[in-house]
From TrEMBL:
<keyword id="KW-1003">Cell membrane</keyword>
<keyword id="KW-0547">Nucleotide-binding</keyword>
<keyword id="KW-0472">Membrane</keyword>
<feature type="domain" description="ABC transporter">
    <location>
        <begin position="2"/>
        <end position="221"/>
    </location>
</feature>
<dbReference type="InterPro" id="IPR015854">
    <property type="entry name" value="ABC_transpr_LolD-like"/>
</dbReference>
<dbReference type="GO" id="GO:0005524">
    <property type="term" value="F:ATP binding"/>
</dbReference>
<dbReference type="InterPro" id="IPR017871">
    <property type="entry name" value="ABC_transporter-like_CS"/>
</dbReference>
<dbReference type="Pfam" id="PF00005">
    <property type="entry name" value="ABC_tran"/>
</dbReference>
<dbReference type="InterPro" id="IPR003439">
    <property type="entry name" value="ABC_transporter-like_ATP-bd"/>
</dbReference>
<dbReference type="InterPro" id="IPR003593">
    <property type="entry name" value="AAA+_ATPase"/>
</dbReference>
<protein>
    <submittedName>
        <fullName>ATP-binding cassette domain-containing protein</fullName>
    </submittedName>
</protein>
<keyword id="KW-0067">ATP-binding</keyword>
<dbReference type="InterPro" id="IPR027417">
    <property type="entry name" value="P-loop_NTPase"/>
</dbReference>
Length: 221
């Protein structure tokens, strides 16, 4: 479901590429951990897979779509339908309640505004009584679950989670990984999560590991 070949990315003005992935594949329903030190390009890779960034060279194919072939508008629609993205900075809209933050996924991908699905996801994630709460009325863990519900709303084939265990203690780290896995497995989605946290390797032992290194001139992975 995910194939990466000869992928290189360099931000404008940077002297050397921030990221190089020669080859990586993931089958539908398989899970992967992208691990590496700060600055090694983990977030960049997830943004490339989600077609938020365009690679300098190389190819990424997700669910038989070569991302490079998509126009920016087509990429937005494609992302909304096939990718669930749990960003590191959860990016909830402060003026919207939990339910409406989740429904943004439907809006972004031009799908039906199914508030009963949003409420069902909130209940499944233990937030059945928080549908009308705004982000500032939620704990950090609750906000993360709202963002996860938003990512799951369109039943994505690929769930991307950027540093989902940052700043979590050991038991919360295990719980966060278990929740992500349960949600991905329920709909048969593949899960790709990025981390610099070695605990995640233990919490997700069946995950394929893609190890990134801190960039140096002429670096390869
Ligand atoms: N928008 C940008 N413009 C220019 N350089 C960027 C941009 N975003 C990230 N970078 C640089 O690209 C490199 C990789 O950044 P990235 O955020 O992908 O790393 P990371 O492994 O996710 O780091 P962390 O674990 O600290 O979140 C870093 O050197 C960073 O400074």
């Amino acid at each position: 479901m995910l194939q990466i070949a000869n992928l290189t990315h360099r931000y404008p003005g940077a002297p050397t590429p921030q990221l190089h992935v020669p080859a990586f594949t993931l089958a539908q329903g398989e899970h992967a951990i992208v691990i590496g030190p700060s600055g090694s390009g983990k977030s960049t890779l997830l943004h490339l897979i989600a077609a938020i960034l365009t690679p300098q060279s190389g190819d990424i194919t997700v669910a038989d779509t070569s991302i490079a072939t998509l126009t920016p508008r087509a990429a937005d629609l494609w992302r909304g339908r096939h990718i669930g993205f749990l960003p590191q900075k959860l990016a909830l809209i402060p003026s919207l309640n939990a339910r409406d933050n989740i429904l943004l996924s439907a809006y972004a991908s031009g799908q039906a505004n199914d508030s009963s699905r949003a409420d069902a996801l909130l209940s499944a994630l233990g937030l059945g009584d928080k549908a009308t709460a705004r982000p500032h009325q939620l704990s950090q863990g609750q906000k993360q679950r709202v963002a996860l519900a938003r990512a799951m709303f369109n039943r994505p084939q690929l769930l991307l989670a950027d540093e989902p265990t940052a700043n979590l203690d050991d038991s919360s780290c295990d719980a966060a990984i278990a929740l992500l896995l349960a949600q991905a497995n329920e709909i048969g989605a593949s899960l790709v999560l990025s981390t610099h946290d070695a605990r995640v390797l233990q919490a997700l032992p069946q995950g394929k590991v893609l190890r990134l290194q801190a960039p140096v001139a002429g670096a390869s992975i």
